[in-house]
Write a structure and sequence with these properties.
This protein is α+β, with helices and mostly antiparallel strands. The chain is built from 5 helices and 6 strands; from the N terminus they run ααββαββββαα.
Length: 151
């Protein structure tokens, strides 16, 4: 069972993690991990493992969605994981998968599992409705390119 002190430290780390993503402060973001960051995007099967891949992921996301942010964040605690539920918002203002920006905004619900060792994140596993996000920004054709569209 996680004691209140560790729970508080983990919550502080998550608040710093979310803040650093919004502020594009990648050094601070990486510092919330245990020395080896890892992201898993479950909707697409993409995995970003290690500093270089995680930085590339964040930079590409912020090129496409420079105002990406979180709202309505709720946390649920377990022994080695914190579940965060939130709304992810942003506007497609930059290139996204080689396509010109649409200028359209999105809001999708997300569940992110943050796995911990002590008070540092070891892995962030993200579940989001990619189909809704792409439809909202006017890029449903990406689903067809990925073989996920209708025949």
């Amino acid at each position: 069972m996680v004691d209140n002190e560790l729970r508080s430290r983990r919550l502080e780390v998550l608040e710093e993690h979310f803040r650093s993503e919004i502020d594009h402060d990648w050094d601070a973001c990486l510092a919330t991990f245990n020395g080896h960051p890892r992201y898993e995007i479950m909707a697409t099967g993409q995995v970003y493992d290690g500093d270089d891949e995680v930085l590339e992921y964040h930079r590409n996301q912020r090129i496409a969605f420079p105002d990406q942010r979180h709202e309505n964040v709720r946390h649920h605690f377990a022994d080695d994981v914190v579940v965060a539920e939130f709304d992810l918002l942003g506007t497609n203002l930059g290139e996204f998968y080689g396509m010109e920006p649409t200028g359209k905004s999105f809001r999708v619900p997300v569940v992110a599992l943050f796995f911990f060792e002590g008070d540092r994140i070891t892995n962030e596993r993200i579940y989001l409705d990619t189909t809704s996000l792409l439809a909202q920004i006017g890029r449903s054709e990406i689903l067809a390119l990925a073989g996920m569209g209708e025949d």
